[in-house]
Amino acid sequence: MNINGVLVPVVTPFDNQNQIDYPALGRLLDYLIDSGVRGIVACGTTGEYYTLSASERRDLMSYIASHVGKRALLIAGVNDTHTAGSIAKAEEAKALGYQALMLAPPIYCLPQQHEIVHHFKTVSAAVNMPIIMYNFPARSGVDISIESVLELAKDKNIIGIKESSGDFSRALTLINAHMDNFQVVCGSDDQAADYLFWGVRSWIGGAANYLPGEHVAMIEAADAGEYERLLDIMWRILPVIKNQEAADYNQKAKVGCQFIGLPVGEPRPPLLPISDEDKESFLALLATAIK
């Protein structure tokens, strides 16, 4: 499966009663698709999947699938604390028509490398769907080692890795391994220009919720070999991205949506709204970045 393009881990809007705001979600999905994104990632970290009940998750996944239809690639985040949980979520996504999965190592339990490999292979065999691995040790607590990636890339269903370690030398090693039918996906937003320069053409980033046009334009510039245009966009949005990644990532994704006229409410606890001071600083950077 070709996963080139911008894949957006869409936020989950909540209303004033802290319930999922489906009209707001529909407006955001339409905006993202009209902006040229390639795919929608449902129930990713930016979508606050960890705050959803089983029934809320099922209803949300169903809504996104039906609203998006064939207009964009549908990818389901299926992270869980154990392998059986990820399999159950993956089977649910498959039944709803999702075309691919995004999967990290189980959080909290700190599996060793052979256990990480077993986790991915077990999910692959159980659901027989394309899988994008998600390497974000700051959240999962463990790295998927380069050796494990090379082994797992041989699995016919494991088609790529979202690399969010922040270690670009590691990313370069994976990019230059030239694995067959396997793509490295940019998951470190502040390094996007570096990834694109080295030939990566797939990007999963939370800032695409409110900067989808800029994300799409960067990939188009890289495709055309217009690296000055690519750098111009990157320099313009980099202060916003660095501010978002420094703290309160999910909150700022939602603040950004509100700024562009698509309010999506506040995050669910344990996350809380950011302070007025932090919001003002973030919005000042965003106002400068958007042309």
How would you describe this protein?
By secondary structure, this protein is α/β, with parallel strands linked by helices. It has a single domain (5-225), classed as Aldolase class I (TIM Barrel, Alpha-Beta Barrel). It contains twelve helices and eight strands. It has an eight-stranded parallel beta sheet. The mean pLDDT is 97.
Quick rundown:
The chain has 291 residues and is of the alpha/beta class. Helices cover 47% and strands 12% of the residues.
CATH superfamily: Aldolase class I
CATH topology: TIM Barrel
| Total domain modules | 1
Major sheet: 8 strands, parallel
Average pLDDT figure = 97
Q: Report the sheet-strand fraction.
A: 5-15%
CATH architecture descriptor: Alpha-Beta Barrel
Annotation field: number of helices: 12
Q: Unreliable segments (pLDDT under 50, ≥5 consecutive)?
A: none
CATH class: Alpha Beta
Strand order of the largest sheet: 7-6-5-4-3-2-1-8
Q: What helical percentage do the residues reach?
A: 40-55%
Q: What shape does the CA trace take?
A: globular
Task: Calculate the terminal CA-CA distance, rounded to whole Å.
Answer: 34 Å
Helical/strand content category: alpha/beta
User: Rg, please?
Assistant: 18 Å
What is the number of beta strands?
Answer: 8
Order of helices and strands: EHEHEHEHEHHEHEHEHHHH
